[in-house]
Amino acid sequence: MTKKNSKVLQERRKHVRLPILHGILEPVEIEFFTNGADGKPVPQPAILSDLSAGGMRLITFMEPPHTKELNIVLKLNGLKEMPVTGRISWVKDKGGVFMSGISFTGISPDYKKRINDMAEDYSDCDTRLALKLPEVCVETCRASGLCNKPQKDEPLFKKK
Question: Judging by DSSP bridges, how do beta strands 97-106 and 70-74 pair with one another?
Fold first, then answer.
């Protein structure tokens, strides 16, 4: 393998992703700033597919506008409302359903840490699952509010 090819295989993401899986798709509302007649932001519903401290993947049913900035308010179980700003990194269209990658350009250090903590706990849980450890879910899991893995219902996780 050449030096050039080895770069292709390197992970470019800086943050662990928190997949919004197992039937939990979180609705969010985003505002697109457009150069419309009144200059006001246009709200649009979206579905959060995955999340990291550096960005997220959204599903929308309207094409995102070609704009430089998005204002997003994330309302996630276990977290306060998180206002963030971002930009669209990529868009894929499949029959009028649009999947977009959003890179955060403005997020508070506290929110960034909280998302990282949640994603790391979720990843740790996946590792324990893969290793078939007896205690998969733990009460200290910071991703618990967004998780509905079947193991969460096992007696070890439930409070007595």
Answer: unpaired
Cα 83 from Cα 28, distance rounded (Å): 11
**Which contiguous run of DSSP H or E holds residue 44?**
strand 42-52
What distance in Å separates the CA atoms of residue 52 and residue 19, rounded to the nearest whole number? Answer: 9
pTM score of the predicted model: 0.71
Instruction: Write the DSSP symbol of residue 119.
Output: H
Dist. CA 148–CA 122, nearest whole Å:
11
pLDDT at 80 over 70: yes
Q: How many CA atoms lie within 13 A of 25 on its CB side?
A: 10
Q: Which of these, 92, 95, 100, lies nearest to 72 by C-alpha position?
A: 100
pLDDT at 13 (0 to 100): 57
Q: Which pair of tokens denotes residue 33? A: 């700033």
**Could you give the CA distance from residue 141 to residue 88 in angstroms, rounded to a whole number?**
31
